[in-house]
Design goal:
3 helices, NIPSNAP family protein, 4-stranded antiparallel beta sheet, NipSnap_domain, alpha+beta, Dimeric_a/b-barrel
């Protein structure tokens, strides 16, 4: 399994609104397509106004196919256009993480 690790930094005061929208609309769409939701975490100490979202995939090809299908979904297109209209996200960093040979996900 590989892990997609997404870090989002938000405009101060906008994280809670984004979380509510994501929980009520976006997460279900992504679960339908991306399948292995590993978690969503919110910073408490350190770089504030930051979330980390993680998804697991069998391979890069699996990730690519699943995300491509999601991008074609009209529900996703509506959701993501509404998210961008919130003007809440200030930056986004995406890493693909491979497990160490002794990791349970290897």
């Amino acid at each position: 399994m590989i892990v997609e690790h997404r870090t989002y930094t938000f405009r101060p005061g906008s994280v809670d609104g984004w979380l509510k929208k994501y929980e009520s609309q976006g997460l279900a769409i992504q679960k339908r397509h991306l399948n292995r939701f590993l978690g969503l975490y919110v910073s408490e100490i350190g770089r504030l106004h930051t979330t980390v979202l993680m998804w697991g995939y069998d391979s890069l090809a699996d990730r690519e196919a699943r995300r491509q299908a999601m991008y074609q979904d009209p529900d996703w297109q509506t959701f993501i256009s509404e998210v961008w209209a919130l003007d809440a996200i200030r930056s986004q960093d995406v890493m693909i993480m491979n497990p160490a040979p002794f990791s349970p996900g290897a």
